[in-house]
């Protein structure tokens, strides 16, 4: 298990690489804590993604609990990227993932 600091460093690096490569969508698997009640890495990643969204650095972030066709932001993304409809996490309310549109 990486520390929060190490995990955030990896996160920032992978986002930078994805941007450089022209990747449009990322699925971040950050986990949700060993007891299923919300881990420190999940909280740190989601906080940073909110900051990035507010600053216009990313187009959208959809937390796993909202990754469902019934969610307005998810529905819009699915319309733009129909291939995401086959994602196995779609509709499962998985707290351990986040979808990011760069």
Give the gist of this structure.
The chain has 102 residues and is of the alpha+beta class. It contains 3 helices and 3 strands; from the N terminus they run αβαβαβ.
Please outline the helices and strands.
Blueprint: H1 4-21, E1 25-29, H2 40-54, E2 60-63, H3 72-80, E3 97-101
Antiparallel strand pairs: 1-3, 2-3
Helix pairs in contact: 1-2
Q: What fraction of residues sit in β-strands?
A: 5-15%
Order of helices and strands: HEHEHE
**Alpha carbon gyration radius:** 13 Å
Helix content: 40-55%
- Terminal residue distance: 27 Å
Summarize the main sheet: 3 strands, antiparallel
Query: Based on CA inertia axes, which overall geometry fits?
Result: globular
Number of helices, where a helix is a run of at least 4 consecutive DSSP H or I residues: 3
Domain count, please report it.
1
Mean pLDDT: 94
Which strand order spans the largest sheet, edge to edge or round the barrel? 1-3-2
Can you tell me the residue ranges where pLDDT is under 50 for at least 5 consecutive residues?
none
């Amino acid at each position: 298990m990486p520390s929060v600091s190490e995990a955030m460093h990896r996160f920032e690096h992978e986002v930078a690489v994805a941007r450089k490569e022209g990747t449009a969508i990322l699925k971040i698997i950050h986990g949700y804590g060993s007891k299923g009640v919300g881990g420190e890495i999940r909280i740190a990643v989601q906080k940073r993604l909110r900051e990035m969204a507010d600053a216009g650095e990313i187009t959208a972030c959809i937390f796993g609990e909202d990754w469902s066709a019934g969610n307005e932001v998810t529905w819009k993304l699915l319309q733009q990227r129909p291939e995401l409809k086959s994602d196995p996490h779609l509709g499962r309310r998985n707290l351990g993932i986040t979808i990011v549109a760069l």
